[in-house]
Amino acid sequence: MTLVHKHLLIVDDSSVNVELLLDLLDEHGFENTHGISDPRLVLAHCQQQLPDLILLDIRMPHLDGYAVINQLHEHFAHRMPPVIVLTAQVDDQTRHRALNLGVRDFITKPLKHDEVLQRIRNTLSLEQRYQVRDQQAETLERMVAKRTKELNRQSLTDPTTQLPNRRALTQRLREASMGGGDTGLLFVAVDQLDDVVRLHGYSVADQLMMHISHQLADCLEQGSELGLWGGSELLVIVNSSEPACLQQLAERLLGCFEYDQSFNHLLIPLNARIGISCSQARFKTERLVRMAALALPQKDCPPIQHYCEALEAQQRHRLYLQQALRGAPQRGEMSLLFQPKIALTTQQIIGAEALLRWHHPELGHISPADFIPLAEASGDILAIGEWVLEETMQYIVAWRARDLLSDDFHIAVNVAARQLARKDFTERLLAQLAKHDIPERFIALEVTESGLMSDIHNAKAQLSKLSEVNIAVAIDDFGTGYSSLAYIKTLPFSTLKIDRAFVMDLATSEKDRLLARTITQLAHSVGCDVVAEGIETADQAAYLRAMGCEAAQGYFYARPLPAKEFVTWCSEWKPPFSTTDTETVNGS
């Protein structure tokens, strides 16, 4: 719009001045001008059509110019049109008062036409620039608002699955908490997704996650929300805290994993586990999620589990144990027990297994089944394993000095997978033996099948080094892990230990006798001897001896004993069978 199209309003109690200004503006092309001589009519005119500029006299009856300005400010606020004051008063007081009210300019009377036109054009031009600036600012503000809205949406959305992300789920849970109603939470862990990444790549895994999320979303009722909590972890927020309802929903969700996923001409097997938590009032978001995550079942357990306080108590206990475990050997809380190994044919004591025990000053005796997995998970098993080897060697040194060990006696030490995974394990062990001047034949190592298979290539390298220096290695708990004929063929070890699971029912189970005999024959076929553990009866020992099993250990002979009691037991050993003369630890 050009300046001549602007709406101008002239307010002056002198109709002569009004007409004069209207004629002047008309003469110079202004097309939309109006004049008012009664100031009381200004507000009504402005309410009907707001002017672009007001030329306002100050000295008027009924309402002076100041009152008119105040009236317009009150009604239009920031939409107040610009004002040029028409006045014969040129004193500072008049000017200051008008300027304080936001007046843009002054035109003094008597009027000078050129000056009037120039001041009008200047004010309109300036006001037009303000309007353009305001319009640009509004446009920019709308663009920023639109972009901010989109950025906010993106910040709440996982870019791959387009599901609500962790931030959005946290926000949704906060809202649910503030509402104070029933809230249920299902923590869904999708297993085997790492296998998909390895076999098919990240792109396929991402698309598969989208495929799964769509299936899961179809199982939800209105008001429930599905979102991505982590890489392969999903959360489902439900407006219910009824355990039966949440259980049914979890079962429906697991139904999506009953069959292989048909996707991109592939059939991909996936499994899932679900932990459930709920609240019937306000809750802490992090707490409710942690409860559901805590309820997430282990992979070998039923796939659905509800949170209960006992689970949290177990977790607290685990954390306490994990903290207490660090430094336990140095604090004198750990000790070694020794369980004798007996040659089944000669009834001689041929060795012992060193077994680690932990007695906490407050918790008392803690089972190795509880603390060993914690130590392996935390890495504390490395320090503990070093301590066990050092402690064992000190006993060997002491017993050799007292001439209690014969040349065919050895002590077996259990070695964890993380110890064996150290590239310098063998070198460190040999250096430790050399420091104590212990021949390699006095020490033996026992490793589990799962420990070997966690890094089969490194295990093979380490076992080869140990074999080269004649350190015997036994595969512990054979038959309960992988039991792969391939690794039996390729790994250099000297002994297989038959797990107690195959021993306990030997006297009553033909199947167990067949399995024990098969393991024994298998070991002999690859040049290994066999040690059976968990012997509790004479019948079990007799069956194993008849099968050709070389050695045995178990409660039938002796429980694991402290060092002093072990030495005493060995000195008093009397074979339970009528064979050759008995021998002490040193075979004398």
Structure in words:
The protein has 588 residues and is α/β, with parallel strands linked by helices. 46% of the residues lie in helices and 20% in strands. It is built from 21 helices and 21 strands. The strands form 4 sheets. It has an 8-stranded mixed barrel, surrounded by 5 helices. The relative contact order is 0.06.
Strand order of the largest sheet: 13-14-16-17-18-19-20-21
Question: Roughly how many Å is the radius of gyration?
Answer: 45 Å
Structural classification:
alpha/beta
Strand runs, count: 21
Taken as a percent bin, the fraction of beta residues is: 15-25%
Characterize the biggest β-sheet: 8 strands, mixed, barrel
Shape: rod-shaped
Taking pLDDT < 50 over at least 5 consecutive residues as the criterion, the unreliable ranges are 580-588
Query: What percent of residues adopt helix (DSSP H or I)?
Result: 40-55%
Intertermini distance: 120 Å
